[in-house]
Amino acid sequence: MYKFYNIKTTVQICSVVLSIFVNSISICLIITKSPKIMGTYRHLMIYFCSCSIIFSLCDAIVQPNCQTYKSSFFMLADVKNRPLTPWIAELFIDLLTSCIAVTVYSIGIHFIYRLLALERFVWWLKALKMNISRQGRLKYFNEQFLLVWFSIPFLAGAIWFAVTRFVFGMNPLTTNYIRNTVEEFFNLKMEDCVYGAAVFYPIDENGHQFISWKAFFGLGCYMTLLTIPFVTILVCGVKSFKKVRSLLDHGESDFARNLQMQLYKALIAQTVIPIFFFFIPFGFVFTLPIFEIDCQFLASLITFVIAMYPAIDPLPTLFFVDYYRNAIFEVFNVCRCKKARIEGVSDESVSRGYPNTV
C-alpha cells in the first residue's frame, strides 16, 4: 500500500507540472503562431487548454483515490496527512469530478465546430463556380455566439457537481458500507477522509440490504451527461471524416485541405484519448458495481488516468499541426523541418482567397 501511495503521489505531482507546462505552451503557440484562417477556432483551443489546467490544479489539491467495493464506487481524499479541512476537500472532490463533464463537452463542441467548418468549406468550393457567397451554419460560432458555446461545458459541469454533492455526498450508511475496504486498501480511518460515493445496495441500521433508488438516479444523471457528448463526437466525427475524404478528391486549395487534415488528425487523437481514458473506464466503473462485479484494479487505474489526462490531451494538436510543431522545433532546436508549409502559398494570400474554415 505504501508503494502504491508513493507512485500515485509522484504521478499526480508530475502530471500537474507537465499539464501546466504543456497547456501554457499550447496557449502561447495558439496566440502567436496560428494563421488567420483558423478564425474563432483559436478561442476554442485556448478555452480547452485553460480547462485542462484547472482540471490539473483540482487533481493536485485533491490527490484522489478511486475505488469500488461490492455495489459501490467512490472517490476518496485524505485529510489527515494534508493541510485540508474536510469541507474544502469535499468541495474540491466535487469540482474535480465536474471537470470530467467540462472536458468531454468541450471535446463535443470542438467536433461540432470542425464539422460546420468542413461543411462551409466544401460548399464554398462548389459556390466558386456559381459566383455566390454564403456564410453557412458556421456563423453560429461567430464571436457573438462564443459565450453560449463556452457556457455549455460549465452547465454540464454544474449538473455533475450538483449530483456529486447532493446525490453521492457523504452519509452514515455509505460511510459504514465502505469503511472496511477503505481501512484495508488505503490504511485510512473514515474520520480522516472525505469522499463522494454511490452505493446501489446499502445496508440499513438493522443489517438489511435494500435498493438505493437515489444512487440509481445519480447514475442515470452521470450516464446521460456522458452519452450526449459521446454521441455528438461519434456523429460529427463520422460526418467530418467523410467530408475530409471528399476534400482530398478536389484539386483546389492544397493549403486549406492540408490544414484541415492536420486539425482533423489532432481531433481524432483527442477523441481516442477521452474514449479510452474516460468513456470506457468510467462506464465500467459506474455500471459493474450494479452487479457487484469487482473492478478495483480498473478503479485504481482511473486514479492515474484523471491525473495524466490534462497533460496528455494537448499533445496531439502540438504534434499534428505544423505551425505549432515547427515552432517548438525551432525554439528547442530539436530538428529542422524541410518543408512545413505548402510552397507558394502565404498566409496573406490564403486570408484573401479562402473562407474562414477552421
UniProtKB/TrEMBL annotation:
<keyword id="KW-0812">Transmembrane</keyword>
<dbReference type="GO" id="GO:0006935">
    <property type="term" value="P:chemotaxis"/>
</dbReference>
<comment type="function">
    <text>An odorant receptor which affects chemotaxis to the volatile odorant diacetyl. Specifies AWA neuronal cell fate via the odr-7 pathway.</text>
</comment>
<keyword id="KW-1003">Cell membrane</keyword>
<feature type="transmembrane region" description="Helical">
    <location>
        <begin position="83"/>
        <end position="105"/>
    </location>
</feature>
<feature type="transmembrane region" description="Helical">
    <location>
        <begin position="12"/>
        <end position="32"/>
    </location>
</feature>
<feature type="transmembrane region" description="Helical">
    <location>
        <begin position="140"/>
        <end position="163"/>
    </location>
</feature>
<dbReference type="GO" id="GO:0042048">
    <property type="term" value="P:olfactory behavior"/>
</dbReference>
<comment type="similarity">
    <text>Belongs to the nematode receptor-like protein str family.</text>
</comment>
<dbReference type="GO" id="GO:0038022">
    <property type="term" value="F:G protein-coupled olfactory receptor activity"/>
</dbReference>
<dbReference type="Pfam" id="PF10326">
    <property type="entry name" value="7TM_GPCR_Str"/>
</dbReference>
<dbReference type="GO" id="GO:0060170">
    <property type="term" value="C:ciliary membrane"/>
</dbReference>
<keyword id="KW-0675">Receptor</keyword>
<keyword id="KW-0552">Olfaction</keyword>
<feature type="transmembrane region" description="Helical">
    <location>
        <begin position="44"/>
        <end position="62"/>
    </location>
</feature>
<comment type="subunit">
    <text>Interacts with odr-4.</text>
</comment>
<protein>
    <recommendedName>
        <fullName>Serpentine receptor class r-10</fullName>
    </recommendedName>
</protein>
<keyword id="KW-0325">Glycoprotein</keyword>
<feature type="transmembrane region" description="Helical">
    <location>
        <begin position="297"/>
        <end position="321"/>
    </location>
</feature>
<keyword id="KW-0145">Chemotaxis</keyword>
<dbReference type="InterPro" id="IPR019428">
    <property type="entry name" value="7TM_GPCR_serpentine_rcpt_Str"/>
</dbReference>
<keyword id="KW-1133">Transmembrane helix</keyword>
<keyword id="KW-0969">Cilium</keyword>
<feature type="transmembrane region" description="Helical">
    <location>
        <begin position="215"/>
        <end position="238"/>
    </location>
</feature>
<keyword id="KW-0966">Cell projection</keyword>
<keyword id="KW-0716">Sensory transduction</keyword>
<feature type="transmembrane region" description="Helical">
    <location>
        <begin position="267"/>
        <end position="291"/>
    </location>
</feature>
<keyword id="KW-0472">Membrane</keyword>
